[in-house]
Design a protein that fits this description.
Elements: H1 2-16, E1 20-21, E2 25-28, E3 33-39, E4 42-47, E5 51-56, E6 61-67, E7 71-72, E8 78-79, E9 83-89, E10 92-98, E11 105-110, E12 114-118, E13 126-133, E14 136-141, E15 145-150, E16 155-161, E17 167-172, E18 178-183, E19 188-192, E20 198-202, E21 210-216, E22 219-224, E23 228-233, E24 239-243, E25 251-253, E26 259-263, E27 270-274, E28 280-284, E29 291-296, E30 301-306, E31 310-315
Parallel strand pairs: 1-28
Antiparallel strand pairs: 2-31, 3-4, 4-5, 5-6, 7-8, 9-10, 10-11, 11-12, 13-14, 14-15, 15-16, 17-18, 18-19, 19-20, 21-22, 22-23, 23-24, 25-26, 26-27, 27-28, 29-30, 30-31
């Protein structure tokens, strides 16, 4: 009888145990992956070796590589520019890099030819850039300012200071009408993209730097230095958090926002949760180093990049 009860208990634990999954594939890039975006079946990866790579995830091959000029470091040595941020729209590519001068940024656009929009002489300390449409780029400044750059005039339509705290990340919603900005204070700012107007502040769930954010279906996820994985409903402003075991460096929401991914521990594992119940769905093990970016392709396929030259591919439906 005791053996039967013990077996039943162990079987129940097995049924309720969170599945641990390994990667189903990987993509090797030349350099450390610093940023990554997915455009249909094309994965665009920014590296610290002065270029971006475009990979066809169906054909499983690199189809394009776009390089920018080398820069001089503070010692005067020539070195590859670190591409911090990238994006793509209708065959155009965006490359934001360090300039090697005073912490200022270089911003390039590639449309068959490489054109420089901003240089160190403009003295702009930009950390992240994303296309809004073919002629406008949203910029996130180190000083936690948001700006909308007109590509045709190379002038900003607005530049708004969101807070005195240092900028960390921003994410756009699906139609690119709004963006959520995170900073070292833990307060998240929801901004109207066309005007730069601050629409709402999301606060209470993080009390320190929020490294990364995502924004889908009216929901925002935040990856916190305070070991809190935060979730907010933007309309109501209400939120909650899941306690992690280490600094949380990355997050991503699935297209439906029914699932969320967080880097929750010091082993660089990725935990997948149900956003409604906060229950853990899966644990993804195999990441080699500190996570930089997580992207859901759909509800089950995930790409992740960390401080190395390997992009991991995951499938929550794997057997």
């Amino acid at each position: 009888m005791i053996k039967t009860l013990l077996f039943c208990c162990l079987f129940s634990l097995f049924l309720w145990a969170t599945p641990t999954l390994g990667p189903v594939g990987s993509i090797e890039v030349n350099g450390t992956a610093k940023d990554m975006v997915l455009d249909g079946d094309h994965l665009v990866v920014a590296t610290d070796m002065g270029h971006i790579e475009v990979h066809d995830i169906v054909k499983k091959e690199k189809i394009k590589e776009i390089s920018i000029p080398d820069v001089k470091d503070f010692m005067g040595d020539i070195m590859p520019a670190r591409v911090m941020s990238t994006d793509t729209i209708h065959g155009k590519y965006l490359l934001l890099s360090d300039s090697g001068k005073g912490g200022y940024s270089n911003l390039y656009i590639y449309d068959g030819n490489l054109a420089q929009l901003l240089s160190a002489e403009d003295k702009e300390a930009i950390i992240k850039a994303r296309f809004i449409d073919e002629t406008h780029i949203l910029l996130g400044y180190l000083s936690n300012e948001v700006a909308l750059l007109d590509i045709t005039t190379k002038k900003e339509r607005y530049k708004v200071q969101l807070s005195e705290s240092k900028f960390s990340d921003f994410a756009l919603n699906e139609d690119k009408s709004q963006a959520v900005f995170s900073c070292e204070s833990g307060v998240l700012s929801v901004v109207d993209v066309q005007s730069g107007k601050l629409l709402k502040e999301l606060k209470g769930q993080n009390v320190d730097n929020v490294y990364k954010v995502d924004f889908k279906h009216g929901m925002v996820s935040g990856a916190g230095q305070d070991q809190r994985a935060s979730l907010y409903d933007v309309e109501s402003g209400k939120g909650d958090y899941i306690k992690g075991h280490f600094l949380i460096y990355a997050t991503a929401l699935s297209p439906s926002a029914k699932k969320v991914a967080f880097a929750m521990d010091e082993k660089n594992n990725i935990s997948i949760y149900n956003t409604s119940t906060k229950s853990k769905i899966a644990l993804l093990k195999g990441q080699k180093s500190t996570l930089n970016v997580i992207i859901f392709k759909d509800e089950n396929r995930i790409f992740s990049a960390s401080d190395d030259n390997t992009v991991m591919v995951w499938d929550l439906n794997q057997k």
